[in-house]
Amino acid sequence: MLLFTFGSLINIAIIALERVHATFCPFKHRVLTKWVYRLIIAVVWVTSGLVTIAYMLLTQLNKLYYGRYFYLTYLAVCLLIICASYTSIVIKVRCGAQPQCHGATSKKTDHDIVDCDCCISSGVPAVRYSILCSFKIQCH
């Protein structure tokens, strides 16, 4: 169960980083090949597995105190990546130098803001669940 919790959180963080790359470097992002995405998926699951193993080892060795801080640090780093990524996207879209036409460009920026809101709001239940699970584990 923890593998999927850690995997979901890091996956949302990687999606946020990928959207930042697409926003700031659209031409480079367009030429990425499938093997790059496969590599990213592999890195996400390997990282998630290693974090889960480290957390389980810390909790099994009667180091619940360290396990709690390890988990909360992981959670804070992922949330920092997500918040910084979407904040930079919003700043780029709202304040960046954009053409003054009101055609497809304005629809694109509105679409980006809606994507940002949807991703953040979809991540909130996962984070809340992770925190609640963390406190449930700590209480036992």
The coarse silhouette is flat
What integer is the average pLDDT? 77
Figure out the total of helices: 5
Q: List the domain count as a whole number.
A: 1
Head-to-tail CA distance between termini: 17 Å
- Main structural class: mainly alpha
Strand content: under 5%
Largest sheet: none
**Rg measurement, Å:** 18 Å
Helix content estimate: over 70%
How many β-strand runs? 0
- Spans of at least 5 consecutive residues whose pLDDT stays below 50 are none
The string of secondary-structure elements, in order, is: HHHHH
Q: What does this protein structure show overall?
A:
The structure is a single chain. It is flat and about 55 Å long. The two termini are 17 Å apart. By secondary structure, it is mainly α. The model has no long low-confidence stretch (mean pLDDT 77). The longest helix is centred in the C-terminal third of the chain and has 36 residues. It has one domain.
Short synopsis of the structure:
The protein has 140 residues and is an all-alpha fold. It contains 5 helices and no strands.
